[in-house]
Specification:
The complex is a heterodimer.
Chain A (H helix, E strand, L loop, with lengths): L8 H7 E12 L38 H13 L3 E2 L6 E4 L9 E4 L6 E9 L5 E13 L3 E5 L11 E5 L6 E7 L9 H19 L11 E11 L9 E6 L2 H20 L7 E6 L4 E7 L9 E2 L10 H9 L5 H12 L3 H9 L3 H9 L4 H19 L10 H12 L5 H12 L5 H8 L7 H14 L1 H8 L6 H11 L6 H11 L5
Parallel strand pairs in A: 11-12
Antiparallel strand pairs in A: 1-9, 1-10, 2-5, 3-4, 3-14, 5-6, 6-9, 7-8, 10-11, 12-13
Helix pairs in contact in A: 1-4, 3-4, 8-9, 8-10, 10-11, 11-12, 13-15, 13-16, 15-16
Chain B lengths: L17 H9 L5 H19 L2 E4 L1 H16 L11 E5 L26 H8 L3 E6 L33 H8 L5 E5 L6 H7 L2 E4 L20 E5 L2 H11 L17 H6 L7 E5 L9 H16 L3 E5 L7 H16 L20 H12 L2 H14 L5 H24 L2 E5 L15 H5 L6 H6 L2 E9 L6 E8 L4 H19 L11
Parallel strand pairs in B: 2-3, 2-4, 7-8, 7-9
Antiparallel strand pairs in B: 1-3, 4-6, 5-6, 5-10, 9-11, 10-11
The chains are: A alpha+beta, B alpha/beta.
Protein name (chain B): Glutamyl-tRNA(Gln) amidotransferase subunit A
InterPro entries (chain B): Amidase, Amidase_CS, Amidase_dom, AS_sf, GatA
GO molecular function (chain B): ATP binding; glutaminyl-tRNA synthase (glutamine-hydrolyzing) activity; transferase activity
Chain lengths: 502, 506
């Protein structure tokens, strides 16, 4: 292990400008693979979602997934790219066991989308424009599991297991132009870019883009150049940086490492580097002494893709509102502070709240339930908010039951608990658990009478004009009815029975 | 009408055309099972000498024949080739039946799926007798590059049957099957047809699905029919051609009316081109003599003969030997010993990379290695433009030459191959001499148009068959059959019998 000399981030920035390049792979959420009809569902038995095409059996031929092309065009349009009038797939040739054909069907010098940009907003509201070089279509590889080694890496493994379920899943690779001028905010910009891209992809409905599931993967290229110099320095390529936090940390670490090397008179080697989640460091992977020769050539088994300009225009006009614009609009509509909006975003609650409002709830109630009770439960279970087994419509119904007085907040939480436990929708849980507020005078009257009888001293105080003491009697009623009483009505009845004006 | 001592119908179905066999079965003169048995018996009798087949699927053939007989008994309609036996080049996958592509690297592999062509044959009730020998991965012009030993030419077993589809052509010429399937990347259907006195057609690129056809050079490969008569080839063409959604390069248009054309042979009023570049050094005198006679015959039959020049054709061979190896270097990368076929050196001490290297070293023959290396080199950065790029430009020029030519003529004719069948071993150590066998056939592969070879006589100096090539524009495959049928009828009348009758008994 070589010792890595890191200089402090501040010292690094005092001497150098960081230049970044981000390559993001997004697995499209198409039902079938890019070149065959196999399912793309995650979590199936290894090699159960394969066929002659995605296994690369002799004789098998690819057929392009039209939805994959449409998704690629929509991503390109959303990134303000030009869309190729005519482009081809290309074979990227290299041997690797997780690639059944020993070439990856990709695109080379004719990407489907090119020359675009994505505006990203930093937390303080500053907008930074990230230029997009290209977005191209390709297929994912299978997955190797190296068995017997200490780290799960191939080194030291006794054997490897191959799962080709992922082989052939459509990928869009989105490559930025060199990102310059971010200065000390480079790590933030990198993170914000990946976050914004993820939102964009989700808003298009082309992928869930869940980084923890490998549906979105990021490679971080970084180099430093002394202030005032035009020429870029030698870059490192940190592979598989697979969370927003990791993107930020990887950039920060590489800035410090590069600065350490350069400041002590050393030179940066062009190499790939591995990122380590546990401490945010990177270590040397493969040294790229010369560019790998992938012997790209146009894929002869596929015909060129020539999107009809009229169709591209249709897709362009039907694009959803860009996530950044939408966020800012909703923040204003809802009258939230930037900080409040940030909490909504951090909780991943924006879309559920919008959907809940669309289902009839008011904004405050929708926000209250998603950021309160539901966020707490998601947190407890360690799952995303949207992964909870409750729909926005159900949340809206809970809010409606509260506003019409059928439930109070305490009961509503029990209803939510019931829905999450699979007891059915809110109304079914209310009925099943008997949770509706007791407000009919008969049942409530009995509880009130009992409370007065059981607490004569307090009742006397109330009769004597200490109206505030009625609270204790209301509490007794609530206790007796296990919280289901309409507290306001109970108070009215107590005062009525004791002959006092409320 | 069955000989009671041999159980073989009389007349002998192995001597009949596919059309006659299908008619006989449909008319109840004999059964599909009897026909299959007769052919299997013929294979048993002669294939030890010829070695046309790598695998005979006796059980599968009989089952397919029985199914046809049952369908007939049930009064169901039968296809035009129902019950007709066929020899399938071992390059098409066949579910449950070995497919080797003539290579050790696929020895023992049993495909889990049928090629589209295989499926079409089965659906049509064609009886697949077995898989035929070929140059490894279809790379060759003699079938000597098969990892499983050479095939003999039924006209002279010491000579090559052409290649890569030598097994299919030899099966036809030795009466082991009335129909066969070949694939043509640079001439692998037409050149074997020429040197065995049979008929072979390379349809327009994209006419016959490549799904399940083990790839050699994707942009050139094309499956097609092989037969002993033009009509039989047309009947088979109609069965195997047509759009296939599983092959993106498959043409989504109606198949040209090839059967109708084959039944109505005529060259009356046609303009027929003769290309000056298709003659000169390296063309055997007897081949040119038969070719020139064929041109005279066409003129006699009412065609107008037009001399043409296609200057780019002289560069076709060079372009082909960059494009085909480039594509094959990538197509053959999947044979790495990890998932199917041969695996060498997996003793628990070696890495996957080492096992792959050992497997490819042991599994590929020298010609395959030569082309993989050539293609790897041609695609390498720094060389791509000079080699692969230039070859693609030549390809465009050749297409333009054809376009210009077909502006003036309806079809072009040429010798199929410059010489008759050469002795086994003669060119084995001289790849350049071997490559010249495809001089006249390669331009059509590069341009993607359609072409046929059919017999035009025997060369006077060696008594071996000479092939006449007819070339038509893309999607005008029917012209091949119209002209071919006219030529076949005229020569048939002149000779008094089919040319194969002159081949020596085995």
């Amino acid at each position: 292990m070589t010792v890595i000399d890191l200089v402090s981030y501040e010292d690094a920035l005092a001497s150098f400008d960081p230049v970044m390049g981000l390559e993001v792979h997004v697995e499209l959420g198409t039902a079938t693979k890019m070149f065959c009809g196999c399912s793309t569902a995650l979590g199936a038995e290894p090699n159960s979602q394969t066929c002659p095409v995605c296994l690369g059996l002799p004789g098998a031929l690819p057929v392009v997934n039209a939805t994959g092309v449409e998704s690629a065009v929509r991503i390109g349009l959303a990134l303000h790219c030009e869309i190729a009038r005519w482009c081809r797939f290309a074979r990227k040739n290299y041997f690797y066991p997780d690639m059944p054909k020993n070439f990856q069907t990709s695109q080379y010098d004719e990407p489907i989308a090119f020359n675009g940009y994505l505006d990203v907003q930093l937390e303080d509201g500053e907008v930074f424009r990230v230029e997009i070089e290209r977005a191209h279509m390709e297929e994912d590889t299978g997955k190797s599991t190296h068995v017997g080694g200490a780290t799960g890496r191939i080194h030291g493994a006794s054997h490897s297991l191959l799962d080709y379920n992922r082989a052939g899943i459509p990928l869009i690779e989105i490559v930025t132009k060199p990102i310059v001028g971010a200065g000390e905010r480079a790590p933030e910009v990198a993170r914000a870019y990946v976050a914004e891209l993820r939102e964009l992809i989700r808003s298009l409905g082309v992928s869930e883009a869940r980084m923890e599931m490998g549906q979105m993967r990021c490679d971080v290229n970084l180099s430093l150049r002394p202030h005032g110099r035009e020429k870029f320095g030698t870059r490192s390529e940190t592979k598989n940086v697979n969370s927003l936090r990791s993107v930020e940390r990887a950039v920060r670490f590489e800035v410090r490492r590069h600065a350490g090397v350069l400041s002590s008179g050393g030179t940066i080697v062009q190499e790939t580097r591995h990122f380590h989640e546990e401490d945010g460091s990177t270590t040397s992977g493969r040294v790229k002494e010369e560019a790998e020769d992938y012997r790209y050539f146009p894929e002869p088994d596929l015909v060129p893709v020539a999107p009809d300009p009229a169709w591209v225009e249709e897709l362009r006009v039907s694009l959803p509102e860009p996530p950044r614009v939408r966020r800012n609009r909703l923040r204003e509509e809802w009258g939230l502070t930037a900080h409040e909006m940030q909490s909504v975003l951090n909780a991943g609650a924006l879309d559920p709240i919008v959907a809940t409002i669309e289902a009839g709830a008011d904004q405050a109630a929708a926000r209250k339930w998603w950021l309160g009770e539901l966020a707490r439960r998601a947190n407890e279970q360690g799952v995303d908010l949207i992964a909870l087994p409750i729909t926005p419509e159900q949340v809206a119904r809970v809010a409606e039951l509260v506003s019409e007085g059928t439930l109070n907040d305490k009961l509503a939480r029990q209803v939510i608990e019931g829905v999450l436990a699979g007891e059915g929708g809110p109304d079914e849980v209310v009925a099943g658990r008997g949770l509706a507020i007791v407000s009919d005078d008969g049942a409530l009257g009995t509880a009130v009478d009992e409370a007065i009888a059981a607490n004569p001293a307090i009742a006397d105080k109330v009769r004597g004009g200490k109206v505030a003491a009625a609270g204790a009697l209301v509490g007794a009623v609530m206790k007796a009815t296990r919280g289901q009483a309409d507290a306001a009505r109970a108070r009215e009845m107590i005062l009525e029975r004791l002959g006092v004006q409320g | 009408m069955t000989d009671t001592t041999t159980g073989i119908p009389s007349p002998d179905p192995t001597r009949m055309t596919a059309a006659a066999i299908a008619d006989g079965i449909a008319a109840g003169e004999f059964t599909a099972v009897e026909v299959a048995e007769a052919h299997l018996a013929r294979i048993d009798a002669v294939d030890e000498k010829v070695h046309a087949f790598l695998h005979v699927d006796r059980a599968g053939a009989l089952a397919a024949a029985r199914a046809v007989d049952e369908r007939r008994a049930a009064g169901e309609p039968l296809g035009a080739l129902a019950g007709v036996p066929l020899a399938l080049k071992d390059i098409f996958t066949t579910e449950g039946v070995p497919t080797t592509v003539g290579s050790k690297i696929l020895e023992g592999w049993i495909p889990p799926y049928d090629a589209t062509l295989t499926k079409r044959l089965r659906d049509a009730g064609v009886v697949v007798l077995g898989k035929t020998n070929m140059d490894e991965f279809a790379m060759g012009s003699s079938t000597e590059n098969s990892a499983y030993g050479p095939t003999g030419n039924p006209w002279d077993l010491t000579r090559i049957p052409g290649g890569s589809g030598g097994g299919s052509a030899a099966a036809l010429a030795s009466w082991q099957a009335p129909l066969a399937i070949g694939t043509d990347t640079g001439g692998s259907i037409r050149q074997p047809a020429a040197v065995t006195g049979t008929v072979g057609v390379k349809p327009t690129y994209g006419a016959v699905s490549r799904y399940g056809m083990v790839a050699f050079s994707s942009s050139l490969d094309q499956g097609g029919p092989c037969a002993r008569t033009v009509l039989d080839a047309a009947l088979l063409h109609e069965v195997i051609a047509g759009h296939d959604p599983l092959d993106s390069t498959s043409i989504d248009a109606p198949v040209p009316p090839v059967v109708e054309a084959a039944r109505n042979g005529s060259v009356e009023g046609l303009r027929i081109g003769v290309v000056t570049e298709f003659r000169g050094d390296g063309y055997q005198a007897g081949v040119m003599r038969r070719f020139d006679e064929s041109v005279e015959l066409l003129a006699d039959l009412g065609a107008e003969i037009v001399e043409l020049s296609c200057p780019s054709f002289t560069k076709a061979l060079a372009a082909y030997y960059l494009i085909a190896p480039s594509e094959c270097s990538s197509n053959l990368a999947r044979f790495d010993g990890l998932r199917y076929g041969l695996r060498v050196g997996d003793d628990g001490t070696r890495s996957a990379e080492q096992v792959t290297a050992l497997t490819r070293e042991a599994g590929f023959g020298p010609e395959v290695k030569r082309r993989v290396m050539l293609g790897t080199y041609a695609l390498s950065s720094g060389y791509y433009d000079a080699y692969y790029g230039s070859a693609q430009k030549v390809r465009t020029l050749i297409s333009r030459d054809f376009e210009r030519a077909f502006g003036q003529v309806d079809v072009i004719v040429s010798p199929t191959t410059p010489t008759t069948a050469f002795p086994i071993g003669e060119r084995a150590d001289d790849p350049m001499a071997m490559y010249l066998a495809d001089l006249c056939t390669i331009p059509s592969n590069l341009a993607g148009n359609s072409a046929m070879s059919l017999p035009c006589g025997l060369a006077p100096e060696d008594g071996l068959p000479v092939g006449l090539q007819i070339i038509a524009p893309a999607m005008a495959d029917d012209r091949l059959y119209r002209v071919g049928a006219a030529v076949e009828a005229a020569f048939g009348a002149r000779w008094g019998h089919p040319i194969l009758e002159e081949a020596p008994a085995l």
